[in-house]
Amino acid sequence: MKEFASFRLDTADQCLWRGTERIVLQPRPFAVLRYLVENPGRLITYDELLDALWPETFVQPQVLRTYMLELRKTLGDDAGEPRFIETMPKRGYRFVAEVREATAARRAPGPRAGSRSEAPSGIVGREKELERLHAELDLQADGQRRVVLVCGEAGIGKTALVDAFSGAVCDGGQVIAARGQCVPGAGGREEYYPVMEALGHLCASAEGKAAARTLERVAPAWLALLGREDKGTETPARAAAGERAPGSLCAALEELSAAKPLILIIEDLQWADSATLHLIAALARRRAQAKLMLLGTYRPRGAAAGLQLKELKHELLMHQLCTEIALGPMGKAATVKLLARELGIETAPQPLADFIHRHAEGNPMFAIVLLRHLIAQRLVMRQGSEGAGEWQVAANLEQMNAGVPEELTQMLELGIEGLTAEEQALLEAGSLMDVAFPAWAVAAALNKDALETEEACDALAQRLYFVRRVGLDELPNGGRSTFYVFTHGLYREVLYQRQSAARRAQRHLQIAERLGELFAGREAHVAREMAIHFEAAENWQRSAKAWREAARYARERQAHAEAAELLEQALGRARHLSDEEAEEIRRELDLAREAMGS
Q: 10 Å Cβ neighbour count for 74?
């Protein structure tokens, strides 16, 4: 583990620590930071960084700048007066902070030996998060009421973590758990929807009679509206038809927890109604001791209640009335364990693990769906006549177009189809660039005003959980354009594929032409990016010309191997060129190869 300033880089868990705070980074920004930290004090050129981290993948320079913006924001660094990452204009980056090995005493805390939070068979890679939940339960057992919020993107494993925790602590009947689920749209029609579901769950449990009696005595309106009368009570619940008061329910839950610790679980709080959020606030702020835990899950953004939830969370955290557990992507080792569990073997084949980890980007649900898709496509299969032999990867997965599984496509589409046609067009245009995209490119693709487009992209990034604003990119004309990223590459892939081929081609062409306008007089600097867009637009002659221009720029920098690679790309379009043009490219390629050998 490497240490610099107040930070520690945890290469085993692929995260960053600041004191006892665990900071989760996406896989690619983490890889960039790790390389810089492991090579402190010296210039790391753009080419070295890209070759070291993505040797087989073309990564646009704008994407690398986006990662640097994200890292600086995480570290609290200033590009003008850097304490950590210094930009060397037109050359690369230098990590300027002192780096040292972290001492054993300062390493990030891990699970205790023999801890109760050892991962059960149903969950992989969340041992530290389970340990934190058990630590909260220990405080609850001492009479300290707890509010714990588990957050993360769709499919990251929030429900699996809660299931594993509640299953472990409730086994044996020493702890009661009641569970409710927020549903999109339900909050606008029915107050306390998830709370009523949890109370119904509680009254139907083994503790149901005691719960109903307590509700009848302390919070009768809640029991009446629940529609569940306890025949053992003297007064029918229908006699208590008053309005539900949060204070009376809080008192009832506290009384129930006096006899046995109680966990109230509410999932998907991003869809919660205002009344439910007010109840959570009331539970957190009450002073009386109670063996009571409210355990909620939510996505960081993406619903009308998002702003209210954010304000509530910040207020509770500020007054130390709440604990937040953020679930980040799983590391590669955890992905390997997850795949092995799904396949029923000890170790997953390495090519399969590499492929799924790269495409699922540490999202466990995405990883499982991708695995099942590959099996259904017979790209991964068991050997032997009865399908009982070893699992084998049937082909080179990196060369296969497995596509996005239909199950994942449908799930991701749900987050897209609720948007307006104009908003969908913005996201589709952004997908033409890469996982990261600048507002100027969206404006160019849609032939829209750049300022209005940027404002519309900002509004989307504030609402959607799968798009984030990450920083500003300086343009050659002195202007600036905001950069955004899709939180997961699969969202970008779905948005790209939902456009017709003709529409994609037209938009790619407009982006390439806008690049040329922005870099007028210096087109060679972005010729490679222009070539990619011309290629996607199937404008073969202009793509070949751009590849040649990029190759000439590479030769000027004495990058002869790169020049040869680019000329081979241009030569691949020979059938679309005149014989004279093709012959000129061959001569240039021969010269580049000769220079490589000299």
A: 17
